[in-house]
């Protein structure tokens, strides 16, 4: 039974997770946060992956949060997986993990159909649901993105292509680097830096 708070929901958001607990569990936490602010949340999930949070839905809805699951069938037969394998944590081999990756691509079409039919006000999708950007543009709605990486790591990746200054290696084997957009000079361990910098430059960036 839906509460009055649920009935007053105006914004509708569709949350699209990836097939790994480290991705869909944090995204569900975001879903709860949005629902606590009055958003009508629909969380897309396969049946098995929903076991991590499904039992909490009744309690959350009784508290006035509107969260529902829109189920999509996992393409087990199409990719050659047992019916109880639906996420990367269940994989016991690289071959099995590859099949789960393939399944994620096969889920794109049915999920897109669900979103188009629902006509939400926004999409909050995992970083691996790259196609959600075009889908949101097609529907004329915002698309939020969930990254499993920390915010600083994302800033560093963005800044690494526009390094302003390289000041050499210190006695600890750390390279001193000044990156645009980051206030403090950063240090990168030399073996890691050797993988990042593959070409020489005027600042002395070399392959190491």
**N- and C-termini, Cα separation:** 64 Å
Strands, count: 8
Helix content: 25-40%
Low-pLDDT stretches are 1-6, 189-194, 196-208
H and E string: HEHEHEHHHEHEHEEEH
CATH class label of the largest domain: Alpha Beta
Number of helices: 9
- Mind telling me the CATH superfamily name of the largest domain? Glycogen Phosphorylase B
Globally, the shape reads: globular
Q: What order do the strands of the largest sheet run in, or round the barrel if closed?
A: 3-2-1-4-5
Provide the CATH topology of the largest domain.
Rossmann fold
Task: Please explain how this structure is put together.
By secondary structure, this protein is α/β, with parallel strands linked by helices. The chain has helices at residues 4-7, 21-36, 57-62, 76-79, 94-106, 108-118, 132-139, 151-159, 190-196; strands at residues 12-16, 40-45, 67-71, 122-126, 143-146, 163-169, 174-179, 186-189. The strands form two sheets. Strands 3-2-1-4-5 form a five-stranded parallel β-sheet, sandwiched between helices. It has a three-stranded antiparallel β-sheet with strand order 6-7-8. The model is unreliable at 1-6, 189-194 and 196-208 (pLDDT under 50).
Key features of this structure:
single chain, 208 residues, alpha/beta, Rossmann fold, 2 domains, five-stranded parallel sheet, three-stranded antiparallel sheet, 8 strands, globular, disordered C terminus
